[in-house]
Amino acid sequence: MIADLEKLNLAESSLEDLRPDADKVHSDGFYFFNIHIHRTLILIELDDEGEATVVWADSHDEYERTFKNNKATIEKWLRNKGYIE
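User: That's the sequence. What structure does it adopt?
Assistant: Structure tokens below.
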């Protein structure tokens, strides 16, 4: 995943084109990655220059407890943590 993010050129392609496991969960550039082999989910923020920041990472079970598989809950969490307005 890190190697893919390092070679990402947003002018040429989207993150979803490069990584089919990327799920855009908010229009401000927040994506979840489901790393199946480790049963890990990673939430990143991708800025306009393509710089990625890990915002949250944990197990799939913790993802379900925290975000309840729901984009509205993800947005509320991002808002409460000050990532979005």
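The mean pLDDT is 90.
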